[in-house]
Amino acid sequence: MQIISTERIPIKLWATQIDAVAMQQVRNLANLPFAFRWVAIMPDAHTGYGMPIGGVLATREMVIPNAVGVDIGCGMAAVRTSLTKISQDELHEILAIIRSVIPVGFKHHPDAQPWDGFDRAPDIRIIQEELFSARHQLGTLGGGNHFIELQQGDDGFIWLMIHSGSRNFGLKAAREYHLQAKILSARGKISLPDSDLSYLPVDSAQGQEYLTAMNYCLDFARANRALMVERSLQAITAITGGVGTYSVNIHHNYAAVESHFGHEVLVHRKGATSARQGQAGIIPGSMGAHSYITEGLGNEESFQSSSHGAGRRMGRNEATRKLDLEVELQKMKGILHGMRSRRELEEAPGAYKDIDEVMEQQSDLVKVITRLWPLAVIKG
Q1: How far, in Å, CA of 3 to CA of 283, rounded?
Q2: 308 is catalytic
Q3: Of 3-12, 95-104, 338-347, 350-359, where does mean pLDDT reach its minimum?
């Protein structure tokens, strides 16, 4: 971990590879007057809106919508199954069933899905406007880097892993309250190094509304992953008889009130996960690399956080321009996947950092419990 002390507060950098734009975003964070103690940057860090993805920022009295991210509650679910082996034919059959019951990309369920959380939706305009759509989005994967994987663990078991978030709820809420933060900043003539860091006072009506909306998005995101896990396990059971024996379901885009160094602060984790002492975690690699089940070490230097994945080493457009399709396909030899064209190179293994190097860089934040190798993947 490297410490940079040239800004208002220090920067603690676990990343050894970070692009210049992301580094400037880190410096901007470190100069915010309400930033607490230091800024922690995880080894998977790369450029985001205002704050890098892979950043951890503790604040006092202020919340920054873009320090949570545009996919509020995006996160991971993983399940260890009772299976110790699985055939290629079984994988093909399971994937076919999963694709038939879990919509991907922009697709929704034709019928409303059950969740008791819909009955406790807060009376907030942006949430109420999305309720009808959300009833059809629950249990859907989405697009981009979201995925469903079947994996072989070094513990001898077959695992199921899912990466997804809060769908339109999170996107719409993030945009709405970032806009409100920009308006408030303009009215108050607040000088910011980047308008993407516009913030809301926690005790303001807008700040309280954002936090309420954010927490509801977190609930929806968790339920979204849980429903996909349930239906994927049903497919696994139908084909193999295997069942789930252990599960983890965590967020990596959120803010939470926590106690650190004797103070109550709001910890923003954008593309970072909580890693309290003994806490179970999930850190995925690319679809041609290992993923990890971890246990937090409770390191206060990172506000008890770790990375959320491998992290991009090149943007989506850059990946489709620069990566060689045949080379990337070779990296995924033996893995069932749907990559066929250059357009899909934006999620190829070469677009991501080396997950094993990322794990080595954060060995003081988490310890590895299980190492997982992808067998089959469905991309959003």
Answers
A1: 24
A2: yes
A3: 338-347
Quick one: three-class SS letters along the chain? CEEECCCCCCEEECCCCCCHHHHHHHHHHHCCCCEEEEEEEEEEEECCCCCCEEEEEEECCEECHHHCCCCCCCEEEEEEECCCCCCHHHHHHHHHHHHHHCCCCCCCCCCCCCCHHHHHCCCCHHHHHHHHHHHHHCCCCCCCCCEEEEEEECCCCEEEEEEECCHHHHHHHHHHHHHHHHHHHHHCCCCCCCHHHCCEECCCHHHHHHHHHHHHHHHHHHHHHHHHHHHHHHHHHHHHCCCEEEEEEEECEEEEEEEECCEEEEEEEECEEECCCCCEEEECCCCCCCEEEEEECCCHHHCCEEECCCCECCCHHHHHHHCCHHHHHHHCCCCECCCCCHHHHHHCHHHECCHHHHHHHCCCCEEEEEEEEEEEEEEC
Q: Which of 46, 108, 290, 308 is catalytic?
A: 308
* Whether pLDDT at 227 is above 80: yes
Supply φ then ψ for residue 9, to 5 degrees: -125, 160
Mean pLDDT of the 137-154 span = 96
The residue to which tokens 């990172």 are assigned: 302
Give the model's pLDDT for residue 161: 98
Q: How many CB atoms lie within 10 A of CB 123?
A: 8
Contact of 182 with 206, CB cutoff 8 Å: no
CATH ID of 2-313+352-379, from 3.90.1860.10, 3.40.50.300, 3.20.20.70, 3.40.50.1240: 3.90.1860.10
Tokens 């699985």 appear where? 86
CA distance 199 to 67: 9
| pLDDT at residue 315 in the model | 84
How far apart (Å, rounded) are the C-alpha atoms in residues 305 and 377?
Answer: 27
